[in-house]
Amino acid sequence: MTDPVKTPPKKPVQFGRIPYAVVDNGALAGLTEAGVKVYCVLCAHVNGRTWTAELGRDRLARLTGLKPYTTIVATKRLAQRGLVTIEEGGGRSRTNRYTVNPLATLGVCSAETPKPDTRKPPSPASETPKPGELNPLAGLTRTEKNRVQNRNSNRVGRQKATPDPRVKEFVQWFCEEYQRVKKRPYIVSHGKDQKIVKTLLQQLTVDQLKLATTAMLADPWGGPRASIGLLLSGLNQWLDGPSKTSAKSGKFLPAQPATTYDGLAQKFDKEAADGKRS
C-alpha cells in the first residue's frame, strides 16, 4: 500500500495594515500613483506594534514596479506630508527604516517648514463659473489649462488694427490702370503688395503713388516689368515722371507715353487748388 501524497503545509495568510485615520481624513487623495504604491508596500511590511518597516531601495523598487529614483522621490513626498518618517540606512542593500504615522493628517510634516506658495494667481479664465454656467476648463489636463490661460492673458488689451482703406483703394486702382495699359489683368499678391502699399502710404499720398505708377507704366524699362514691388524699387525716379530715353539705345523717345502722366499730374494739381483733395 502506497503512502498518501503529503501536501506541503500552507503558509498563514498575512495582511498589511493601512491606518484608517489616514484614509478617512483624505491624506491619500493628494498622492501620486507612485506615492500610493510605495505607501501600500510600506504598510504591508510594518510591524504591528511599532509601525516600522525596514526595506532596501532595490526591494522597494521591485515590489512597486518603479525605478529606484522614483521610489526615493515618492518616499520623500510621503515624509513631507507627515505620513512616514525615514531613517537612512547603509550597507550594500541600502536598507532604510520607515515608520508609518497612523494618525497622520492633511498637510506637511510638522518637523519641516512649509514652502511658500509661489504660484501665480489664477487668470479670469480659471475662476469658478457662476451657477448655471459651464466651466470651459472642465476635463482638461494641467498643461492644456495653462495653454488656455496663457492664450487668454495674451489677448487682454489686444485690439485688432483697423485696415487702412487707402491701401485697398490704391491696389484696386493699380489693377484697373494695369489692365488698361497692358491689356491683361494684374495678379495681386495680397500679403506682399498690400504690405508694400501700406509702407509707402506712411510717407506719400495716394495721388503721389498714382503719379509714380503712371510714370512706371509709361517708362520704356519699367513698363514691361510693372508691378507694385518694382514701384517701390524705382519710386524716387518715377516721382519725377517717366524716362525720356530708351534704356538700350539711349535715343530720345516720343513724348506720347508721358502724356498720361502730365495730364494726371495737372488734374491732381487743379483739384488740390479747388479744395477737392487734401
Query: Stretches where pLDDT falls below 50 for ≥5 residues?
Result: 107-114, 245-259
Q: How far is it from the N-terminal to the C-terminal residue, by CA?
A: 127 Å
Rg, please?
41 Å
Oligomer state of the chains in this structure: single chain
H/E element order: HHEHHEEHHHHHHH
Number of helices: 11
Shape: rod-shaped
Strand neighbour order, sheet with most strands: 1-3-2
Helix content: 40-55%
Main sheet overview: 3 strands, antiparallel
Q: How would you characterize this protein structure?
A:
By secondary structure, the chain is mainly alpha-helical. Among the domains are: about 20-100, Orthogonal Bundle (Arc Repressor Mutant, subunit A); about 165-275, no CATH class. The protein has 11 helices and 3 strands. The chain has helices spanning about 20-25, 35-45, 55-65, 70-80, 140-155, 165-180, 190-200, 205-220, 230-235, 235-240, 260-275, and strands at about 50-55, 85, 95-100. Strands 1-3-2 form a 3-stranded antiparallel beta sheet. Strand 2 and strand 3 form a beta hairpin. The longest helix is centred in the middle third of the chain and has 18 residues, at about 165-180. It is rod-shaped and about 120 Å long. About 15% of the residues are buried. Residues about 105-115 and about 245-260 have low confidence and may be disordered.
Quick structural overview:
Among the domains are: 20-100, Arc Repressor Mutant, subunit A, CATH 1.10.10; 165-274, no CATH class.
